[in-house]
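Repro:
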Amino acid sequence: MTFSVLRHFKKKPSLLSGLSLVIGLAIIRTLKAFSIINIQLKWPNDILYEKKKLAGILTEIRVKPDGTTFAAIGIGVNFYLSDPLKQLINQEATDLFEITGYHLDRNQVLGKLLTELKNMLDDFETYGFLYFRNEWIKSHAYEGCEVTLKLPTGATIDGAVDGIDDSGALKLITNSGIRTFNIGDISLRLKAES
């Protein structure tokens, strides 16, 4: 299931850096409501089950000429992936049918997710990402793990994940000290996977 939502914000784009992280939490809360547990987040925009991708998020933030900030939010949740389709995906993936053994009602999941999104994005606009930070860290799949970051330039950086900062930027312990990385075209992989 894929869908998109357009959301207007009163905040400046610079204050929306944790947006995709909050959306990930909304997906986790929704799945927990359907008794799906052990779901984890992978910074900045993937949802995992047993280290396999279950869902993903894309966000694009823009400012209209009148100064209004809006975000186009795209969400994809794997309800059922055939084996041939799984072979086409460039990473390990899973689906809700494989996890639960039955087909969840897409309309019920979508309804719950839209409600969670609305409520959480309202709180995000009011309180910022810091309001969600601790909850997010508890669900981070790679917390404390050795990882490799691949930057948009193609350069790679190795280190250990040391949480996220108050804005949602990833903190990485490297040979040169603690560095932070903002959300962008960055690929994060466990060191054994890279």
